[in-house]
Amino acid sequence: MFYRASLQAAAALASLSLVAGCGLLSDSGSETSQQISVGTTSSPSTLDPAAAWDGSWELMRNVFQTLVSFPTGATSPAPDAAECEFTDNTSMAYRCELRGGLKFSNGEKLDAEAVKYSIDRILKIKVKGGPAGMLGSLDRVETKDDNVVVFHLNKADATFPFILATPAMSLVAPGDYPADKIRDDGKVTGSGPYVLESYEAGNKAELTKNPEYKGFADRKNDAVTIRYFKDSEPMVEALKNDEIDATYRGLTAEEVVALEDNKKDNNGLQVVETVGADIRFLVFHPDDPAAGRLPVRKAVAQLVDRDALVAKVYQGTAEPLYSMVPKGIAGHTTSFFDTFGDPDADKAARILAEADISTPVQMTLWYTTDRYGSSTGPEFEELKRQLEASGLFRIKLKSAPWTAFQEGFTKGEYPAFGRGWFPDFPDPDNFIAPFVGPDSVTGTPYLSKEITEELLPASRKVSDRGAVSKEFKRAQEVLVEDVRLLPLWQGKLYVAAGEDIGGGERALDPQTVMQLWELYRKQSW
């Protein structure tokens, strides 16, 4: 989620700032239609769910439907297009019965065959770095009749319902989506809360309420305009000028702090902070002459000062992260701190010396310019400063827009690069499994038999997800031993709401994906 997931933002936060705009009334007792305009710096990389494992989920959640989903406040998947349950005690057969009368926005019937088609094409197309990697436990999809579909798994997987709840598993109309390639005409045919009326890549998306929708979403507005900004500064200006009513994803740390410190000058905004589950980390390519060497990776891990990074760049709007499983998720540990402790240049020097590695080590770090917000550049400048201050490294920084960046890392062109992860679902499995195996979402295969063949299979047999701490503690120890991934920080979630906008406290689901239908303009003051 990629992409899905949200604190995303420049600061690794998924920030939602809701403010006043020229408005209409809410659905609750309203007599006029409601339209909301929101801004974000995270534009979709694709409109086809079969290719999406990133921030594209934000739009998809609102225009597509999944069999099960995560209503606000839910801790496990709940019915959306279907009622589903495991039919055996081994978590290997998952049966779903569809709601009656479901249709896609083009009039096609949404039946069991359409469900099978939607899931099968993900595996057939198998986009590199795409959501096919989430379906490793799926053996086959069987249709029983028009309204019943059964997912037969090749191994026990108690997380499978969580996977089906992600926007990557969105149901698509077979008539409009090729079975063997990605749809690329800039259009969407779904059965979700909204219909995508028009879309201008990198600029704007116009959504209107879907009159045929049958699902869990209680829509509190009639239409939403999403404006995509390359940087947060013009987005904030648009917000202040009432050109948009709300923003989500992309506020910098400075902007969050300014909103908190200047509430009186910002139309009475109320800023609420909660712990988020999205994370930032470095990925090292195993074939690179420098990054491919374990002592080099360990030296980097020994030098990175997360406290300084968070303080200087994110001004407290994020917090240091010492494992790939963030705080707030079952199984969280501080494994990297337990192993490396505080930053120490002398220890890093010894690690390199013992491996007979000459210094300074030359290495290039890559980052994307338009996916995680405006603070990403300063973040990598600070990482460069820290590593070079030790005298052990000489760092070159390179960057690219997300589309080009994604193409580069999936081709294995980057020796080391920064990634963000926004949870597909709130389970420790989702912070380990996507990054290991031949189809790692990082685009860089990471083969670890202990994790993929022992720890994950054992944990997936357990339906009580709070009882799998032992397996995930060990998995995090393996990640520390390899240092193929280096966690940096996890974001905090900020919701800032103006006096006339409601629903902001409910707009982010447990996957931290924006549910636009929750936003509305209050009736009166």
Automatic annotation (TrEMBL):
InterPro entries: Peptide/Ni-bd, SBP_5, SBP_5_dom. GO terms for biological process: peptide transport. GO terms for cellular component: ATP-binding cassette (ABC) transporter complex; cell envelope; periplasmic space. Residues 77-439 form the Solute-binding protein family domain. GO terms for molecular function: peptide transmembrane transporter activity. It holds the Pfam family SBP_bac_5. It is found in: Cell envelope. Its main location: other. Residues 1-20 form the signal peptide. Keywords: Signal, Transport. Belongs to the bacterial solute-binding protein 5 family. This is Peptide-binding protein. The lineage of its organism: Bacteria, Bacillati, Actinomycetota, Actinomycetes, Kitasatosporales.
